Amino acid sequence: MNVLELLKKDHSKVKSLFAMFDQLNASDHEKKAELFAQIRRELQLHSRAEQQIFYPAIKAVDSSGQRLAFDAAKEHQNIDELLVQISRLKPSNKTFDEKLEILLASVDSHVEQEEGEIFQFAEENCSEQQLEEMGDEIEERKRFLDHEMAA
Questions:
Q1: Is 24 helix (H, G, I), strand (E, B) or coil?
Q2: Which of 27, 49, 109, 143 has its CA 20 to 30 Å from the CA of residue 135?
Q3: Which stretches of the chain drop beneath a pLDDT of 70?
Q4: Helix, strand and coil in the chain, % to nearest 5
Q5: What are phi and psi of 110, to 5 degrees?
């Protein structure tokens, strides 16, 4: 699968998890914990695979690619920090929902930038074969990481 299609699919999955979270009752702490665990796992798998495969390919193109990959990696770092902060909170803590809202806004901003500028850059500078190969590599890497995280 083309890497851009694969990454968009990941983005949609995370958005749907956030939407499910938004529909929960404030007192449904157990379900909040379960959904946050899913969101965290999906974001970590996506982020790691992207940083190990997609961003290095973008960086290798030219200085514009280096800048785009650097900015995206910084956004990933901010998201990772939020994930750690939220994981230290109990779902019954008022700050839990507030931090999750900040996480949602950060992820939305990152997705918008990535699906816009970065994906356009990739389409303009990578061959269809390269995009397909990166997609295959990311799928394989995510399976490996998922297995590693489950252990």
A1: coil
A2: 109
A3: none
A4: 85, 0, 15
A5: -65, -45
